[in-house]
Design a protein that fits this description.
Order of helices and strands: HHHEHEEHEEHEHHHEHHEHHHHHHHHHH
Oligomer: single chain
Shape: elongated
Distance between the termini: 53 Å
Structural class: alpha/beta
Strand order of the largest sheet: 2-1-6-3-7-8
Bound molecules: zinc ion
Largest sheet: 6 strands, mixed
Radius of gyration: 28 Å
């Protein structure tokens, strides 16, 4: 027992304490409860008939100790590298795993990012989101590096070419290798970011250390630069998650807390991955379908197959995107109704009794007392969450999640496809740098990637946002998804039509294509802004 806690608990000489969580760590019961609990503070009823009264009496003292935001022992201020959480198929992030991970953490003087999450939400979505956030950038760099390397090797004739329906010299290296390396780096990258994950950084075996860590939770948050909330609908319902938010907002004096508070719904990872896979799948027919001497047949066949694959893979992608916007609505509603009285806590669910029948502290009462000390009253904190925090979240989740770099990242397979196309034409006779098809394809690809795609994506996201409401009728739901797909396919078809039209400009085709793209980008941007204005006006 840490001295500070021990003194105020045993000050009366009557209260025993700290036998701890009786359930073995990792047992089903442990996995089911919230990640933190003051369950270890309970009173030996056999020795003390006034146990329940005493428990009530020590609540203000426990709350005062926690509200001081001190770390009681330097041994518990610990952090781990982000990659440690992803090892062994992200065992430390899976609720059912019963291993001990404490040895993966080490003493630290501060924490870069505190991961706040609920053990009750979708664990695989959470793992994919963390992988995307921490390994995504390195994965794409790896993908691009290998795709460029393959292009250079192919250009120098060091890689075999592929025959497509009797026509040889085609490169099919950039897209598959880019995809493969991105996937591998995403799974295997060892991110060195200094993070706090409760399962790793709080000892689950040493009850003394565990008790001290829970009592110092607010202190640990104070020592954290950034708090990353991995939001799912259960997060707002968990008492200790709300406590973490309150402690962080208090420790960062609210204003600086705004920049330090990052919220990512756990659907962010699945969405990013789904769009990336969709782009790869849509490009595969373009690099593999037979090529005939009749260019019309080639174009129609490959784009038809591309459309077919796009629709098949596009359906789950649209579904995931609509789900994302539906969940933003849920989050907004939950934050408007945020309350410590309705939040779930394992102590209340277990009727404030340890498995051995001893009365335990009510976490809710302690947390409410802490919030009173920090914010003046519970209502003041709830009001703060409803106004300022909600504003930060709404803005960051709608405007700052789907940024231009994100769009370019998840759609990079399109550029890899153009790199393959460019490499395939490298052996054409050189009549001039700017006239060579290899150079022209590369310029066309880059302009398509930079100008065309971000605008299509903008509208796609807008369609999914407007059409987010879920229908009770199963068939109407399918119809809605198909409508969004057709709307997007229509926009892409315009782009495709423009590309085909530019072919008629012969020597100037690339210039015409870039000009068309600029015009297209302008029109799409205006449409997106118009739609945004309508959506905001009618509160969709
Ligand atoms: Zn309780």
């Amino acid at each position: 027992m840490p001295p500070s806690i021990h003194s105020h608990l045993s000050g009366k000489g009557e209260v025993a304490s700290a036998t701890s969580d009786d359930s073995p760590i990792g047992s089903p019961r442990h996995s089911e409860k919230s990640q933190h609990s003051l369950e270890m503070v309970h009173v030996e009823t056999s020795m003390n008939p006034r146990a329940e009264v005493l428990i009530e009496e020590i609540i203000p003292k426990v709350a005062k100790s926690i509200a001081e935001m001190e770390v009681t022992n330097p041994e518990i201020l610990r952090a781990t590298r982000a990659f440690a959480a992803f090892q062994n198929f992200a065992a430390a992030l899976r609720a059912g795993c019963d291993r001990d991970f404490f040895h993966k953490s080490r003493k630290s003087h501060k924490i870069s990012t505190f991961w706040s999450h609920s053990w009750h939400g979708g664990q695989w979505k959470k793992i994919l989101t963390l992988l995307t956030l921490y390994n995504g950038f390195a994965a794409l760099l790896g993908g691009f590096f290998v795709a460029i390397l393959m292009m250079i090797l192919f250009d120098f004739g060091l890689l075999p070419d592929w025959e497509r329906f009797g026509n040889g010299n085609f490169s099919m290296w950039c897209l598959p290798s880019g995809f493969l390396v991105t996937t591998l780096v995403m799974l295997l990258w060892r991110s060195q970011n200094n993070v706090f994950l409760d399962r790793i950084c709080i000892s689950q075996q040493d009850n003394d250390l565990k008790a001290q860590a829970i009592f110092s939770l607010a202190g640990l948050l104070k020592k954290s630069d950034v708090m990353l909330i991995l939001w799912d609908p259960t997060w707002t319902q968990r008492l200790w998650c709300l406590f973490e938010l309150a402690a962080f907002l208090k420790s960062k004096k609210v204003t600086s807390g705004k920049q330090a508070l990052i919220v990512r719904p756990i659907f962010f990872g699945p969405i990013s991955i789904a769009i990336f896979i969709f782009c790869c799948a849509a490009c595969i027919p373009l690099t593999t379908t037979p090529v005939s001497s009749d260019s019309t047949f080639t174009v129609m066949f490959s784009s038809g197959t591309c459309l077919l694959v796009g629709c098949v893979v596009g359906y789950p992608t649209i579904l995931t995107l609509r789900n994302y916007f539906q969940n933003l609505d849920i989050m907004r509603q939950q934050l408007l109704e945020v309350s410590f009285d309705t939040a779930k806590s394992s102590c209340c669910e277990q009727n404030h009794q340890s498995p051995s029948g001893q009365p335990v502290l009510c976490d809710r009462k302690v947390v409410k007392e802490c919030v009173n000390i920090w914010f003046g009253s519970q209502e003041a904190f709830e009001q703060h969450v409803r106004s300022e925090v909600l504003e930060i979240l709404t803005l960051s989740l709608q405007e700052r999640v789907f940024t231009m770099p994100w769009v370019l990242a998840v759609t990079s397979p399109f550029l890899w496809y153009f790199m393959d196309l460019s490499a395939s034409f490298i052996r054409f006779e050189w009549t001039g740098f700017w006239a060579h098809p290899s150079v022209l394809f590369l310029i066309e690809g880059l302009s398509f990637w930079f100008l065309g795609i971000p605008n299509v994506m903008d509208l796609l996201l807008m369609f999914c946002r407007v059409a987010r409401a879920k229908h009770q009728n199963f068939y109407l739901e399918i119809l809605k998804n198909l409508l969004v797909i057709f709307a997007c396919a229509f926009i892409l078809a315009i782009l495709f039509g423009l590309y085909v039209a530019s072919r008629f400009a012969n020597d100037f085709r690339t210039v015409v294509w870039v000009g068309e793209l600029m015009l297209y980008a302008l029109c799409m941007r205006l449409s997106a802004h118009g739609m945004k204005a309508v959506v905001t006006r009618f509160g969709w």
